[in-house]
Write a structure and sequence with these properties.
Elements: H1 2-5, E1 7-13, E2 20-26, H2 27-102, H3 110-114, H4 130-171, E3 182-185, E4 188-191, E5 198-201, E6 204-207, E7 213-215, E8 220-228, E9 232-240, E10 243-253, E11 260-261, E12 266-270, E13 280-287, E14 290-292
Antiparallel strand pairs: 1-2, 3-6, 4-5, 6-13, 7-12, 8-9, 8-11, 9-10, 10-12, 10-13, 13-14
Helix pairs in contact: 2-4
């Protein structure tokens, strides 16, 4: 305390020696002034640093805000792509269902296609920024599409395997026109061209010139060939799966018994042998030993 009471004396000497001025300043005042100056300098430094930091923080915040807006924009584009992919997926599902219906394959229930999942959800969207909310929502949609695509891939594999099993059936099912020409007589009760009386006609008649090629209407094995009073020269093909086809009034036979043939192979030539009024083909389709209308099995 004694030191603070001590004073420093300052003497000011003017141009004439008779004018002298003396000032006394205590040590306490000097220390107080020094403290105030130091305080002001420190405060200025702190405020300047704080201002600079706030400017940097504001710049960083603006940069992050722009990045978030850019991310949201990108996620919006991605969500648009997801909508398109979802549409394509729905179309694939519709095609798969249609294929199952056409070939009488087992259907898949709507509930099974939902692929529902569960789990804890302890986080609220309020805890996240808008960009994170959009990101989480998009991620969930992508995950759902991935699960659905894997599911649909498995189902298409099942359909492929089932159709592979049915391929043999399809290949051995009569499905094409046996000859070019004009259908002159249909299936069922028809007038007999010789007697004029009604008589059951077990097939269809296709007329054309003699020598017109006759085609096998499905894969199979030649069961028999021969010549009869009614059909003249004829061929019978066993296609398996309960199907057989018969071709009559031929001029020539190009196959032999036991020969394997494929759909579209030429098996004979059109003629007018047997009970016939002119060149034509008599064509029959037999399923499980029952003669049925061949028109139902001509798809071309």
């Amino acid at each position: 305390m004694g030191l603070l009471r001590k004073k420093l004396s300052f003497v000011l000497i003017g141009s004439s020696r008779d004018k002298l001025r003396q000032f006394n300043i205590s040590y306490g005042l000097i220390l107080t002034a020094a403290f105030i100056v130091a305080f002001l300098l420190t405060s200025n430094l702190i405020l300047t640093t704080s201002y600079i930091n706030s400017q940097v923080a504001a710049h960083e915040a603006e940069r992050l805000r722009m990045e978030n807006e850019h991310l949201i924009s990108k996620y919006d584009e991605l969500r648009s792509d997801i909508v398109d992919i979802s549409k394509y997926y729905s179309e694939l599902v519709e095609k798969e269902i249609a294929i199952r219906n056409i070939f009488n394959l087992p259907e898949i229930s709507t509930d099974e296609r939902q692929l529902g999942i569960g789990g804890p959800d302890n986080l609220s969207n309020e805890q996240f920024t808008k960009a994170l909310q959009v990101a989480h929502s998009t991620e969930a949609e992508v995950d759902a599409l991935i699960r659905l695509s894997h599911f649909e891939q498995e189902k298409y594999s099942e359909v492929y395997e089932m159709l592979s099993d049915k391929r043999e059936l399809l290949n051995h099912t009569p499905s094409i026109r046996p000859a070019r020409g004009y259908q002159i007589r249909g299936f069922g009760m028809k007038d007999d061209p010789f007697t004029g009386y009604k008589r059951f006609h077990a097939g269809i008649d296709i007329a054309n010139k003699i020598g017109t090629p006759i085609y096998a209407t499905a894969d199979g094995v030649v069961r028999t060939t021969g010549r009869g009073e009614d059909l003249g020269k004829y061929i019978v093909i066993n296609h398996g799966f309960g199907y057989m086809t018969k071709y009559g009034h031929l001029d020539g036979i190009k196959v032999k018994r036991g020969q394997k043939i494929r759909r579209g192979d030429i098996i004979g030539l059109m003629g007018s042998t047997g009970y016939s009024t002119g060149p034509h083909l008599h064509y029959e389709v037999i399923k499980n030993n029952k003669k049925i209308n061949p028109v139902k099995y001509i798809l071309n």
